[in-house]
């Protein structure tokens, strides 16, 4: 596999993992308020439940990235 292809795959893998980690952090911080940018802060417990459910669905849909590199590639 050429170096450019490997680089693109590595970038995709890093992008995917970062998104999964960010979403997982939201799920793990159950009960904490959620701030989006400087203007929006979600504190209502019922709204937070909905957000957490949406994030769990997002994580489920993202799943495991269906591409990987073998060591040495």
Protein described:
The chain is mainly α and 73 residues long. It has a domain at 41-73. The protein contains two helices and two strands; from the N terminus they run αββα. The chain has helices at 3-28, 45-62, and strands at 34-36, 40-42. Strands 1-2 form a two-stranded antiparallel ribbon. The longest helix is centred in the first third of the chain and has 26 residues, at 3-28. The chain starts with a helix and ends in an 11-residue tail after the last helix.
Q: What coarse outline follows from CA principal-axis ratios? A: elongated
What is the number of strand segments? 2
Kindly state the mean pLDDT as a whole number? 92
User: Could you state the order of secondary-structure elements as H and E?
Assistant: HEEH
**Relative helix content:** 55-70%
> What distance lies between the first and last C-alpha atoms, to the nearest angstrom?
7 Å
Major sheet size, sense and barrel closure? 2 strands, antiparallel
For the largest beta sheet, what order do the strands appear in spatially?
1-2
In short:
By secondary structure, this protein is mostly helical. The protein has 2 helices and 2 strands. The chain has a domain at 41-73.
Topology:
Blueprint: H1 3-28, E1 34-36, E2 40-42, H2 45-62
Antiparallel strand pairs: 1-2
Helix pairs in contact: 1-2
